[in-house]
Amino acid sequence: MCTDKYITERLIPQDATMEQQPMTNRVPANTPRQIGALIRRIRKKRGMTQKDLSRVTRCSAKFIGEAENGKESAEIGKVLRLALRLNCNIYFEWTEKYA
Questions:
Q1: At what angle do helices 76-85 and 32-45 cross, to 10 degrees?
Q2: CATH code where residue 73 lies
Q3: How far apart (Å, rounded) are the C-alpha atoms in residues 36 and 62?
Q4: Tens of pLDDT, residues 60-81
Q5: Which of 34, 64, 75, 94 is the most exposed, having the fewest neighbouring CB atoms within 10 Å of its CB?
């Protein structure tokens, strides 16, 4: 079972006031388990059930449950579809020095 203890959430303030621009949540996720936990957390914050998300993504509720539990063989395209429908952007961050 995924829990939020694996995730550290940081609020990144924008230059504009909160009335002008909403806060952005940037959360590192480096494993399928962490990504799944984020999908679950965001889905629940949006007030959606797995069935609701299933309807708008054309992914089965079973797949959503597996993805939220960090199934390593979950199809990347479907996981990206879940993120898109939850209004999430995915970023890659790296350094040039990698050895």
A1: 30
A2: 1.10.260.40
A3: 13
A4: 999 999 999 999 999 999 999 9
A5: 94
